[in-house]
């Protein structure tokens, strides 16, 4: 049972990070949080994956304060894996990949969106602690007593404002990703849940 959960967890993070990398490479705008990490990397230095880890650590502390509970230590492993994988894809696998032409960029963005959403739906099957970004949404919901959609919107707008401040890659892709990830995860989740239960 644990082996299956770990397999879903690691596979999901691998696919998720590949999707994030494709959205960045599309040059049409990354998701708000990924745009923030790219902006921080460009403005201050360090790799995008390093900023995934740093921002994740900051969010773990913020989430603990908002939820009035101990920091989610296990989530540190998640952000270390995701940060490392994003740098792996960006620096070693797709470092020479530079889509040209609007149609090709749109295809890359759409593929990135699909992989990103699929990866989230897979990693959620493991029932392990959430990525700090997802936990932040729940912490906002708890603190402000709003529904999940409002909490997600607040979290995404927060990241978007910060990404703009640090000159992150904001574009039409950012809006598409922000609006589409939730529905796509909802689409992928049920069949993956059935698959996990079958294998368990």
From TrEMBL:
Pfam families xref list: DUF6198 (PF19700)
Domain of life, source organism: Bacteria
Keywords: Membrane, Transmembrane, Transmembrane helix
Entry keyword Transmembrane: yes
Residues spanning the membrane: 7-24, 44-66, 73-94, 106-126, 146-166, 172-189
Protein name, per record: Membrane protein
